[in-house]
Amino acid sequence: MLERMGFDGRWINLVMFCVSSVSFYIAHGGQEMGPIVASRGIRQGDPLSPYLFILCAEGFSCFLRSYEHSGLLTGCKIARHAPNISHMLFADDSYIYCKATEEEAYNIKELLHTFELASGQKINFSKSSVFYSCNTAVGLRDTICDLLGIFEADENGSYLGLPYSIVDTCKELERLMAKFWWSTGSTQTKGTSWMSWNRMCRHKHAGGLGFRDLRDFNLALLGKQGWRLLTHDSSLVGRVFKAKYYSTTTILKAELGDNPSFVWRSKVEAKELLDRDEALIFSIQLSDNVLEDRWCWKFEKHGGYTVNSAYKHLQVLKGAWPAVQPSNLWRTIWDLKVPPKVYNFLRRAASGCLPSCVQLQKRHVPISAIGPGAVNRGKVDELEKLAMVAWTIWRAHQYKIAQERRGFSLSHLATDGVKYEQWERPNGNKIKVNVDRALFAQEGRFGLGCLARDNTG
């Protein structure tokens, strides 16, 4: 293979030396054991393994093309003017297309056997399957399966264990993530949802948490495929889709069609990213110089399409991303150098997501509006509550420093108001003594004072 591809003999000898001289060491009981010399060359995970795999896959591809050019394999066309496709390779999976005839089935079996002898690899027929078109006779299907020794695949098959007909996956994933986010306790019970998932997907400077909107992100990924069809229309995929769906126009003018595939439906949906700028593109006056035009994505300085810029563009259109200048409030909150729990409290206070009595009643939580920690009976603005709590904490902190106060609780919000203390007269002929003291720690001194008064003062 390496000689056929034109590699130098010294390079081939180095590669074969690496393959034939591989050895392994293992650690057991704190000691290194080895070397263990492999009898069949390198294993998967070796740095050289991917390159050798690509070389073998390229040899297999060339082998298939030679069979196609010799007329032993016909390949497949999805449209009249579409290119002929005989095989597709995905990592370690291979798709081979041919006519449903005994002759071509025998040619494929011979091809696979020859490749096994040349490469030393073994085809796993238990993991292989055959797909037929709907107009293939049942008897012919059984004959080909018996000839190849492969079972016929179910119509609702799977790829890598995953079914390929998944409906509404993005919404289901977002529902599961939201359920996990708002769940409480070790039992993962459903908690109160204080913010919708759409608000949580907003940018942090727009009042959200910056979670990914999976549908928009998937649309941005599909837009990249549409951009490739637009800028690389001569590629194999571009020629196939053009022959099938927009043979007389461009992808910007393409329509869904009568019987579209799932892949084409996705690309047409992502085409909206390009359609929004179509009028602006065609209004540009072209230069008199005869030069080849090049498509440019206006949301990137280098003019190339990127998924992040497309996702940001979709979020800006929905108002979930600040287009020009973000809010000063949110920028100030996220720029603070405070612990994460303070971030969470400030964010929830600014978003109206604190578990106040009013918010709990809005969510149909059975709780009275006059609770033990209620500040006011009316609907008090959350920022006013935050200011009152902050002022009370500051006042209690100063009182603790001056009077060595040890405790503080939310009950001070309702009880610690401005109090006026007035001297009360003693009863009868008693004398009332008021005492106070002062401590001067820095000077090492203290002072005492007392005042004795009867009922007349």
Helix coverage percent:
40-55%
What characteristic shape results from the CA principal axes?
elongated
Structural class: mainly alpha
Largest sheet: 2 strands, antiparallel
Major beta sheet, strand line-up: 1-2
Q: Approximately what portion of the residues adopt beta-strand conformation? A: 5-15%
Poorly predicted ranges: 369-381, 413-418
**Could you report the average pLDDT, rounded to the nearest whole number?**
75
Care to count the β-strands? 10
Radius of gyration computed on alpha carbons = 38 Å
Spell out the helices and strands N to C.
HEEHEEHEHEEEHHHHHHHHHHHHHEE
What can you tell me about this protein's structure?
There is one protein chain. This protein is mainly alpha-helical and 457 residues long. The protein has helices at residues 9-20, 49-69, 102-119, 138-148, 169-182, 197-200, 214-231, 236-245, 262-270, 272-275, 278-282, 307-318, 328-335, 340-351, 357-362, 382-403, 412-415; strands spanning 23-28, 31-37, 87-90, 93-96, 129-130, 151-152, 158-159, 162-163, 432-440, 445-453. Among the domains are: 41-157, no CATH class; 164-180 and 196-283, no CATH class. Helices cover 42% and strands 10% of the residues. It starts with 8 loop residues before the first helix and ends with a strand.
